Amino acid sequence: MNGSRIFTATYHDTEDRHLARAGIVLRRRMENGKSVWEVEVGNETRAAHGGPAGPPREILDLLAAPLLGRPLVEVAKTRTRTNGDEVETAVLEGQHVITMVPDWKPKLPKPKPRPRPKKGAPALDRLRAYLRQQVDELARHDPGARLDDDPERIHRIRVAPRRARSALRTARPLLDREWAEGLRGELKWLGNELAPARDLDVLLAGLATDAAELGKPATTIVRQLESERRRAQKQLVAALQSPRYLALLEELERAADAPRVRTADAKLHKLARKEFERLRRAVRALGKSPSDEALHEVRKRGKRARYSAELAGGKQARRFAEASKSFQDVVGDHQDAVVAEERLTALVPRAKSPEAIFAAGRLLERQQHRRLAAKRSLPKAWRKLERQGRKAWA
Q1: Is it true that domain 4-101 has CATH number 2.40.320.10?
Q2: pTM reported for the whole predicted model
Q3: For 197-254, how does the pLDDT look when each residue is reduced to its tens digit (9 = 90+)?
Q4: CA gap 305, 308 in Å, rounded
Q5: Residue 249 and residue 228: Cα distance in Å, rounded?
Q6: Are 151 and 197 in contact (CB under 8 A)?
Q7: Which element (helix H / strand E) includes 297?
Q8: 48 pairs with which residues across the strands?
Q9: Which of 25, 46, 70, 360 has the greatest number of C-beta atoms within 10 Å?
């Protein structure tokens, strides 16, 4: 950086620090009479011109999930002087300097940590806290998913509604049935809107090494999938910008504060044990040569059992939830390979050269090997999880 500069930065957040909780920094910078709003999301910074009345629409749209219409307040103000590599920043209160910092970014007020349910807490308290975690996850990763800055963002905003939906299913004895099913339906809608982008992220990541080995013909196939991924991103952004999504976020936040209940309490460990028993029956029914559909159903039941354990809480339940990750990896690898085979098979008729057809065949063959390897790994993964399940739900 060359030359001398002076600029002021006014940092904003909600009263309860929802942006800070989501790992987001929002500021208005003034330099040479020009006003620019900047927002930091992960490693991305987006800027737009705007005045003191508030951030411009494009910034507010990006922050729709963490803000949810909440008003912004000023949380810090700085004046920075730079000269070459030298930086001097004053933290201000009004026009008075209250401290100096060695960089141009001050330490902003941190949000209060969310209270965690204590051991033996009522089921309703555990449910509210669990739903609150999912609200926070959506707020944290929604902006990055819109920017498409990291595939993990989309994974996280897809898992959060899935967890919330599972929790509402497990806690059905507690809840008003019509209300809970309505909310679960909206969460399912969101998951379906996010699925194409996430599935293509998984597919492209899984094909990357094989495609690199096969060279240019396989690269052509990857480019077709990348084109589909760009279309899926547009679908994702359209869903996140829709009034339906914002209404869902508001209802999920209300559910975390005060879900509609029909009874005072329920035994979450008992309900989680039932989910584990359903999973165990489904695994036992697989037989020696299970179909892809049956394994996919086991995968879904495994997720329900895992999320139910997370909701129930306690040391043994947590250990079961952690152990279930390995089982989920195996059945997840199988399903990912099934999806990859379907996608690659659909691409073969569109291949424009014998080399591309050959490359698609080789990629397809490797996915088939991956699917079979997952099947072979399933019995061992299940035995480990079943042992942990017996300990948790004895």
Answers
A1: yes
A2: 0.91
A3: 999 999 999 888 888 888 887 888 888 899 999 999 999 999 999 999 999 999 999 9
A4: 5
A5: 28
A6: no
A7: helix 292-312
A8: 37
A9: 360
Query: In angstroms, what CA-CA distances link 51 with 35, 37, 64, 93, 251?
Result: 6, 8, 19, 20, 32
Residues 157-183: what's their mean pLDDT?
A: 96
Nearest to 198 by CA among 162, 251, 164: 162
Burial class (CB in 10 A: 0-12, 13-18, 19+), 108: middle
Q: Is the pLDDT of residue 1 over 70?
A: no
Q: Is the pLDDT of residue 108 over 70?
A: yes
**Residue type present at position 288:** K
Portions of the chain given CATH number 1.40.20.10: 123-393
CA–CA separation, 258 vs 272, rounded Å? 22
- The residue with tokens 């179909």 is 291
CATH 2.40.320.10 residue ranges for the chain: 4-101
Cα-based distances in Å from 220 to 120, 201, 336: 57, 17, 21
Task: Please state, in angstroms and rounded to a whole number, the distance separating the CA atoms of residues 28 and 39.
Answer: 9
pLDDT of residue 103: 82
| Calpha distance 169→161 (Å, rounded) | 12
Asked if 82 and 5 count as a contact pair (C-beta separation under 8 A), the reply is yes
Cβ burial, residue 227 (10 Å; 0-12/13-18/19+): exposed
Cα–Cα distances in angstroms (integers) from residue 92 to residues 46, 89, 230, in the given order: 25, 9, 44
